[in-house]
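FYI - complex with magnesium ion, inputs then prediction.
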Amino acid sequence: MTAVLSLKNVSFQVGEKVLIDRVSFDVQEGSCLCIVGPSGSGKSTLIRLFNRLNVKTSGDIFYRDHPIEFYPVSELRHRIAMVFQRTSVFPGSVADNLKMALQFRSKEKVADDDPRFVSALNHSGLASSYLSENAELLSGGEQQRMGIARALVTDPHVLCLDEPTSALDVEAAHQVVNTIKSLRDKMTVVMVNHRLEEVEEVATHVAMIDAGKIVEIGTVDEFFHHPKTDRLKAFLAAYRRQGGSE
Ligand SMILES: Nc1ncnc2c1ncn2[C@@H]1O[C@H](COP(=O)(O)OP(=O)(O)OP(=O)(O)O)[C@@H](O)[C@H]1O
Ligand SMILES: [Mg+2]
């Protein structure tokens, strides 16, 4: 197993406030690591450290055996792409939105019918006929899949998704989950998600974070069926009791 990302004793602090506290773990090549934990525990803050949207205060983060500082930021963000809870949509067609992502990353001249558009759309579960659609008029679920396509168009190595389904209804969320499942064979995926049934469906590994610390990390089976810590046991029990997040 090869670690694509490796965190060693990583902390992130803003003023006196320690948001990420001495976190260490590896993300294995081809795995789908889901990160769960209570609201405000540091999940978004943590994944934003991977491509320097947040800059760690101490410790080391390695991407493919090099410290992330070794890579130019634009290259790092191209290789480690992020999809957020709500996709920002730029005025224009879906093709315009995808084109912008390519131009933004590499400043290259991109044709209006670049073949990478169709490939990215198809991998994100949208038909190529969407290319000419007005992006601002798409449904929430379609916009989210366009956001995934926009991340995929630059051919990232690691796709990080921060609660990609939380703003969607059940059906749209299901489509996005299926999209993510179909991507697992093609790239390494890290996803923050508070819907544990979705986590159980897509994850190969799961980590729980609480107050900026890793509580427990393991395979999906270990995590859900053989939790070791009282904290994780309580988290899972509370989730099951409420039929929702803790
Ligand atoms: N740049 C920052 N400066 C100061 N505080 C911050 C900053 N970024 C995040 N925080 C704080 O860090 C804590 C963790 O935030 P974070 O957004 O990572 O939580 P989360 O686990 O993603 O929560 P949620 O499930 O609600 O999205 C919060 O208390 C938040 O207010
Ligand atoms: Mg968050």
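Residues 3-242 form a domain with the Rossmann fold fold (CATH 3.40.50.300). The longest strand covers residues 3-14.
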